Structure prediction request, 74 residues.
Amino acid sequence: MTSQVCTNDHLSNKVKDMLSKTPGLSIKEIARASKVSRQFMAGFLKALEEKGDVYSRKVGSARIYFNNEVRDGG
Prediction:
């Protein structure tokens, strides 16, 4: 269980860093860069959004993600 938490923290930091450098990425783009499935990343991003780490906007049929720290000035 501990290794799973470390892995999730690492992935969380990686995703937030990615979104800081390149805001407005889709689930598919983030999943590809993180080498995980799109389905897994969709759930992971939803959890990060509920936690307040990222936020998203619906653009057409895609959901685009941004790092909340960038928006908050953090």
Observations:
- Residues 12 and 44 are 8 Å apart (CA to CA).
- The chain has four helices and three strands.
- The longest helix spans residues 2-21.
- The chain has one domain: 2-72.
